[in-house]
Amino acid sequence: QLDFGWEALEAAKSARRRLRDRARELASGGFAADAAGAAGALGEFQGALAEDLNAPEAIASLWDSLRPGVLAPPAHLALLQSAERALALGLFDGERDLSPELQTLFDAYRAARARKDFAASDVLRKSLAERGIVVKDGSTGSRWSRV
Description:
Elements: H1 6-27, H2 39-50, H3 55-66, H4 73-87, H5 100-114, H6 118-130, E1 133-138, E2 141-146
């Protein structure tokens, strides 16, 4: 039996966004996925799915394995790739998914940040947010994700 609520829906949306951000970060890290290093965590994840498709338990095991220090980043990547294959969460959707209009806005945002025109970049960030695109800036540059 499912217990639906708007609060739970927002929490699931937020959790998916965090998983997608972590997947993108790992995928852009330049290392190969290490399935051997993720074997135990992968077994837990797959075991939960095999147990009457217990997705909540599978996702919980995924989060437990993604904690810092539990596995090396290549193993995290392998685990997230397996989760993507099993649950089709859209974790590795990249920038190619932006429409040409949104890509133009995002490129303009990055250009404004590069020339330190923060007033313009704030306007562009707001415009992207109104269209469902959240922009995050970090040490490796600006990234976007869907709301």
